[in-house]
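Cross-posted from the bioinformatics board.
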Amino acid sequence: MSNAATLDRREVLAAILKERGDALLVTGLGSSCFDAGVHDHPHTFYLWGGMGAAAMVGLGLALAQPRRRVLVVTGDGEMLMGLGSLSTIGARRPPNLSIIVMDNEQYSETGMQATHTQQGVDLAQIAKACNFALAQTVRTEDEVKACVPRLYDTAGPAFVAMKISTKRYPMSIKMRDGVHIKNRFREALLGQKAFD
Amino acid sequence: MKPETPQIPWSESIYEVFRKVDIRQVAYVPDAGHTRLIQRCHADTGMNTVVLTSEQEGVAMLAGAWLGGERGALLMQSSGVGNCINLLGTIIECRFPLLTLVTMRGEWGEFNPWQLPMGQGTPRVLEQAGVVVQHVDRAEDVAETVFAAAQMTFSACRPVAVLIGQRVVGFKDWSK
């Protein structure tokens, strides 16, 4: 089933990551992981599992690296499984954490079943109620353009739901080994201290 | 029912171990047994001490902490162990260190029958998930066990759970 949204998930992500600079990225499992693989970077940590974990991995990373911007890019299904983490993050209020949900209103890896966001649940309103400094829903390319700088410079936590189309793309990344993904990320970020 | 605040030094001794092994992030779902430790961690400006809505959030948070170069510890009651199981798979796959201190319920003199299934299952459930389990039953052994567990966690990059027995934590006398 398709939705009414027109934004393309990979174009939105490309617009965001073009400005990443030294920002750190955590992806949720599934399509978010595959999308980020198109722009593979050692400062990206790919979650291939652990559904519901992405936002909290982002929190731990943001607290450990307060001078870096930390982005979490995940899907609506993954975010819905970790809704409690929005209140944990909203209570702690890390200024350097931005969460982007690519919201196609479907579980696209498992047969395009409707998620709660297709049935009246508004993730940005939940984030707003959870004390996020910025919480918005983005639907157009102009809104994407206006939103991207705010993901990097807003005193967060920031939350943006990108209403994307249901278009699916092939898997873009074969790097699946968790130990490798972790060690590559730590070595790129921490240098020799990664081995302390 | 008001939880009893334990006035026992073993909780304090864990805080000293945290300082010694450079724990910088502490995530917890509260348990009465950890009350003093949680207070000490919150008061320490060198530690980020974060209250969770569910224990699994802490598993993910401490993975992020390690990615960013910091060591953390997760505090919970045994009833929270079941909430962590799926995310422990991510810890195992990526060989993340995870230091967890679990105060036991349903183990020794428990008055609440609802605590028994998870409490009795806790060691086996953790072992099945691939976590190294170390049980401590005497207050004087707590600090040393936590220190040894921290060494193993962060040097070997493995998940280690220290189960602090209900004999140490104490139980409510329900006979009166």
